Amino acid sequence: MGSFIEINDTLQLTTEQGFPNELSYERHKIKPFLVKDFENQIFEFKDKPKVRIYKLPPVRNFLVQNIDGKWLYWGLVHIIEVTHDNVKQTTSGKFKIIQIYTPEEMKHAYTYLRPTTAKPYI
Q1: Could you read off the pLDDT of 20-76 as tens digits, one per residue?
Q2: Residue numbers of the domain that contains 71
Q3: Could you tell me if residue 1 is inside a domain?
Q4: How many CB atoms lie within 10 A of CB 11?
Q5: Is pLDDT larger for residue 90 or for residue 120?
Q6: How far are the Cα atoms of 1, 2, 44, 120 from residue 13, in angstroms, in the given order?
Q7: How crowded is the C-beta side of 80, counted as CA atoms within 13 Å?
Q8: Fewer CB atoms inside 10 Å of the end CB: C or N, the chain?
């Protein structure tokens, strides 16, 4: 008898799961966000399916926005808190943004970082 726990290096979120409303790709293309724009903010995510473990600071996790099943890589985060609901088999938590990719870096990130099942947003 055993348990299944998923180990992740990517925090991939939909809007419903807590992807930051502040991050708009259309606005980012016009006037790119900087990491200092978010340096004192802590963001929350909720109800990720499955019990997941993320890399702990100082190791980074990738921040990905899931837009209708397509992935948009935004940068890097530190996961600072994780809560598991063992009944619902979900993971929730808190994170800080530690790096924001430029729009050009976002275009290339998918090429280098994508999992084999993800589709690019850009």
Answers
A1: 999 999 999 999 999 999 999 999 999 999 999 999 999 999 999 999 999 999 999
A2: 6-120
A3: no
A4: 25
A5: 90
A6: 31, 28, 11, 14
A7: 11
A8: N
Closest Cα to residue 38, out of 102, 101, 105, 96?
96
Q: What is the CA radius of gyration of the chain?
A: 14
Q: What is the CATH number of the domain that holds 34?
A: 2.40.240.20
Range name among 55-59, 74-78, 106-110, 118-122 with the lowest pLDDT average: 118-122
Handedness of CA 23, 24, 25, 30 (dihedral sign): negative
Low-confidence winner among 10-24, 45-59, 108-122 (lowest mean pLDDT): 108-122
Q: C-alpha angle with apex 56: 54 to 57, nearest 5 degrees? A: 140
For residue 70, give both structure tokens. Answer: 């397509």
Six token digits for residue 69? 């099943």
Strands 70-85 and 90-100: antiparallel
